[in-house]
Amino acid sequence: MRNITTLAAHRPGAKPDVFFDRGELNQILRVYGHMVAKGEWRDYAMNGGREQAVFSVFRRTSEMPLYSIVKCPKLARKQGAFAIIGMGGQILRRGHDLSALLRFFDRKRFKVVD
Q1: SS3 content of the chain, % helix, strand, coil (to 5)
Q2: Based on the structure, what is the number of domains in the chain?
Q3: Does 85 reside within a domain?
Q4: Residue 84 placed within a domain
Q5: What is the mean pLDDT of the chain?
Q6: Which of 13, 37, 52, 110 makes the best surface tag, with the fewest CB within 10 Å?
Q7: Rounded to the nearest 5 degrees, what angle is found at the Cα of 70, between the Cα atoms of 97 and 35?
Q8: Residues 6 or more apart from 101 whose CB is under 8 A from it?
Q9: Of 45, 48, 46, the residue nearest 62 (C-alpha)
Q10: Of 78, 112, 114, 111, which is closest to residue 96 (Cα–Cα)?
Q11: Angle made by CA atoms 62, 64, 68, in degrees to the nearest 5
Q12: Tens of pLDDT, residues 6-61
């Protein structure tokens, strides 16, 4: 079975689609697993395109995503290739290093309840 990016690369003049590599996806899925274990997240969706790749997390499948983790290589030299976008579309965090960016969820993961 062929990979989608492989098929896109064979079109004349087409750039391959952007997607998360194995290391990036492992980091994201590790955080996702912790949040699922806590019962905060229940579903996810991934989308790769010509400009960016998106990993969205949902509390329920029928709702809008709580957070979207976006990879946009076009912005790598400027603001950083990675961003976390909130439910309302606001950029919560942006950076060059995915592991540093995913620490945003550590506060959510280990929140102390009074």
Answers
A1: 30, 25, 45
A2: 1
A3: yes
A4: yes
A5: 83
A6: 13
A7: 85
A8: 69, 80, 82, 83, 84, 93, 94, 95
A9: 45
A10: 78
A11: 130
A12: 455 556 666 778 899 999 999 999 999 999 999 899 999 999 888 899 999 998 87
Specify the amino acid at residue 114: D
Q: How far apart are CA 99 and CA 55, in angstroms?
A: 15
Residue range of the domain that includes 98:
16-107
d(Cα 7, Cα 36) in Å, to the nearest integer? 33
Is residue 85 within 8 Å of 64, Cβ to Cβ?
Answer: no
Sheet holding 67-71, edge to edge: 43-48, 53-58, 67-71, 82-85, 91-95
Q: If DSSP states are collapsed to H, E and C, what string results for 32-60?
A: HHHHHHHCCCCEEEEEEECCCEEEEEECC
Burial class (CB in 10 A: 0-12, 13-18, 19+), 3: exposed
